[in-house]
Amino acid sequence: MYTIEELYDLDHSLAGDYLRGFTYPWEALPGIKEMIVEIGEGLDPDEYEERAEHVWVHKTATVFPTAYLGAPCIIGPRTEVRHCAFVRGAALVGADCVVGNSVELKNVILFDNVQTPHYNYVGDSILGYHSHMGAGSITSNVKSDKKNVIVHSGSEQLETGMHKFGAMLGDFVEVGCNAVCNPGTVIGRNTNVYPTSCVRGTVPENSIYKNNGEVVPRK
User: Fold this and answer.
1) Domain range summary for the chain, segments of one domain joined by +
2) Spatial separation of the C-alpha atoms in residues 13 and 42, rounded to whole Å
3) What's the CATH code, domain 4-217?
């Protein structure tokens, strides 16, 4: 459940070839910035406009004039970047995505059809194909004690060696409104998270995470 292959359909991101070079998705976080620059420099100028140095926007994308796009970033086809969105940089946003009002992105990969539509913070994270974050839900990417993030699954612990690591959402994950994904959260495919939940550790695919921490199979 931890591995890239178990979480993501890599055909739905320009980062697919890059991600295939790793086993666990968090291993890809440190190189996102360089990966975006490499991909961006190879994009077809008939399809993508370089609006500033290392800021590539597909010609079918819609970027509101109040949005900020920091370098490096790629905004994919038919994606909407709405009012006052803050793309700080190192953000690869796929096709048919929504980056909504007052949303902040930093060091992330958003696969195709991802929606972060209202007041979301997504940092040091990878969001899979057709995943959705409800209004006000966030990824918390730094522990309160400032120690390196550990991925927990029952009695198993995986050391990441990383100070900043938000969440890995598999394909078709639904995160409810005002939920918090704590550092090192990994959520399997086709899983729903209840609104206002405080999510920790790993959540199996095809599950429902309730706001008391209970996890039940999704029927």
Assistant:
1) 4-217
2) 15
3) 2.160.10.10
The answer to whether 185 touches 139, Cβ cutoff 8 Å, is yes
Pairing of strands 167-169, 198-199: unpaired
Place of tokens 């050391």: 159
CA 182/CA 123 separation, integer angstroms: 11
Distance between first and last Cα of the chain: 19
**Dist. CA 217–CA 128, nearest whole Å:** 20
Which pLDDT tens digits describe the chain residue by residue (219 residues)? 689 999 999 999 999 999 999 999 999 999 999 999 999 999 999 999 999 999 999 999 999 999 999 999 999 999 999 999 999 989 999 999 999 999 999 999 999 999 999 999 999 999 999 999 999 999 999 999 999 999 988 788 889 999 999 999 999 999 999 999 999 999 999 999 999 999 999 999 999 999 888 999 988
